[in-house]
UniProtKB/TrEMBL annotation:
Organism: Neodiprion lecontei
Residue span, Reverse transcriptase domain: 1-124
Origin organism lineage: Eukaryota, Metazoa, Ecdysozoa, Arthropoda, Hexapoda
PANTHER family: REVERSE TRANSCRIPTASE DOMAIN-CONTAINING PROTEIN (PTHR47027), REVERSE TRANSCRIPTASE-LIKE PROTEIN WITH RNA-DIRECTED DNA POLYMERASE DOMAIN (PTHR47027:SF20)
Pfam families according to UniProt: RVT_1 (PF00078)
Protein name: Uncharacterized protein LOC107227333
Coiled coil: none
InterPro entries for this protein: DNA/RNA_pol_sf, RT_dom
Xref: PROSITE patterns: RT_POL (PS50878)
UniProt superkingdom: Eukaryota
SUPFAM superfamilies registered for this protein in UniProt: DNA/RNA polymerases
GO biological process terms held by the UniProt record: DNA biosynthetic process
Record gene name: LOC107227333
Length: 464
């Protein structure tokens, strides 16, 4: 090895032991060196996890990472004993501080005999959670810890994306949406098909990714999820999760019959018929997602082609199912102030593709306003309406709703007559829809100018 400084190289330094930190040669040499480890364990009759009497899974090997599996505390002890023998013969050292034991149980506490393991006289720590290849696993194998971790990372990604946006000045809705897909979605969904298929976890993921959209549009956190989803035509996260799981099934079905993943999936399907806890059999939450759209029979035909040809149809069916649910909630919604007619075929409202981000924001805020609070961001500041309280300006016992603000307020009547056209012939509700659903350039501009003028008026009378 030489060391370069500016344009000069040092004399050569011989490396006689070990490899450089981070060198890809290191895991490769390690893999070659321990290539006989499974045979070694098999020859000594160590028991791993029995897979349908077809094979034993003794350990999972990935690069320089070894995870040994046992079905009981006593067989774990036998594993450790054979591991010591293997290390002694091959001159290997085990880093005890990095070695952990996790006892997995479906319920109840960890038993005493599942603690107190030793290796060469040193205690090995027994842990309740362990991060294996980037996924946080807990001893109850329910996926909650991975979901909490993913949520935390997702929120960090939202924070850093928000920072990038403020520096870049990404000025259109589509550019902000792209940043979401590339930074937040990918962080949130890392290996999600392993841990994120349960309903409670899916709900958590939906809430986390929507935080981004609520934040960039300054929507109150209490805004029901379906409002920004319908308005912005943002798909749910769960069809993405189902897609990950679905692709994983296809990948396994394409494997050779003797591969562990394939044997494992076959066994899980056999066991799924009478399994006590649905959360511990990977196929069951997948099946229950499919059963929402009447497609649970997919598991009756485990043929790769069958799964491949049905993929797009099933995923689209699930997306439509969820959108329909949103529409039902929306039509019955008591928390939305201005219900606008919407249908399953609706895509992105045209105004979102036209204006710059700060001009589309106030219109969106009005269209998805809820009954608890509403921010309207104008270039002269934010108007904060409190729909549950009486109007601060009119003194006529009317509440500060969107209808009051846009149609009835006596305090704003002169501004209104300048910018908005209100018909006395139709109801307030219809007038509201006419204003908020008017996507013509003049309609869009008039609304924006009205909001700016209101903001100016409020600033002049409410001291900061
Ligand atoms: Zn008023």
């Amino acid at each position: 090895m030489h060391i370069r400084k500016d344009h000069h190289l040092s004399d050569s330094i011989d490396i006689t032991e070990g490899v450089l930190q981070g060198d890809i040669l290191s895991p490769l040499l390690f893999i070659l060196f321990i290539a006989d480890i499974i045979k070694f364990f098999e020859n000594r009759d160590v028991e791993g996890l029995n897979l349908n009497n077809l094979c034993q899974i003794l350990m999972l090997l990935y690069a320089d990472d070894i995870a040994a599996l046992s079905h009981s505390a006593s067989s774990s002890e036998a594993t450790l004993k054979v591991l010591k023998e293997y290390c002694d013969i091959n001159g290997l050292e085990v880093n005890i501080s990095k070695t952990k034991i996790m006892a997995c149980r479906t319920s109840g506490r960890i038993k005493k005999k599942d603690k107190g393991f030793q290796f060469k006289g040193k205690s090995i720590e027994v842990v309740k959670t362990y991060t294996y290849l980037g996924v946080a696993l807990s001893s109850n194998l329910q996926g909650d810890i991975a979901a909490t971790e993913a949520s935390k990372r997702g929120k960090q990604a939202i924070g850093s994306t928000y920072l990038i946006l403020s520096r870049l000045g990404a000025e259109t809705w589509l550019s902000k949406k792209k940043l979401h897909d590339s930074m937040i979605k990918t962080t949130l969904l890392y290996l999600v098909h392993i841990w994120g298929l349960r309903k409670e976890i899916l709900d958590k993921l939906e809430a986390t990714h929507l935080l981004y959209f609520k934040r960039i549009f300054h929507l109150p956190v209490c805004t029901p999820h379906y409002l920004p989803r319908l308005e912005l035509d943002i798909p749910h996260i769960s069809p993405e999760v189902l897609k990950y799981a679905y692709n994983w099934v296809i990948k396994i079905l394409d494997m050779r019959e003797d591969r562990l993943s394939k044997l494992g999936l076959t066994r899980l399907i056999q066991l799924s018929a009478n399994y006590k806890s649905p959360n511990l059999n990977w196929t069951l939450p997948v099946k229950s997602l499919l059963s929402l759209i009447g497609e649970e029979q997919m598991f009756e035909d485990m043929n790769a082609t069958h799964w491949k040809v049905n993929k797009d149809r099933i995923l689209n069916k699930y997306r439509s199912f969820l959108k329909l649910q949103d529409l039902k909630r929306y039509s019955k919604s008591e928390s939305c102030q201005t219900p606008i007619p919407r249908s399953l075929e609706d895509s992105l409202p045209i105004y979102l593709t036209r204006g710059s981000f700060h001009t589309i924001t106030p219109k969106l805020q009005l269209r998805v306003a809820n009954i608890y609070s509403c921010n309207i961001s104008t270039k002269l500041g934010v108007i904060k309406l409190k729909p549950a309280e009486l109007c601060r300006f009119c003194h006529n016992s009317e509440k500060e709703t969107i209808a009051h603000f846009l149609i009835n307020s006596t305090f704003l009547s002169s501004l209104r007559s300048e910018y908005l056209q209100i018909s006395k012939e139709v109801s307030d509700h219809l007038n509201l829809i006419i204003i908020l659903d008017d996507h013509s350039t003049s309609g869009f501009k008039n609304l924006l100018n009205y909001l700016t003028a209101c903001s100016e008026l409020f600033n002049s009378i409410t001291p900061n």
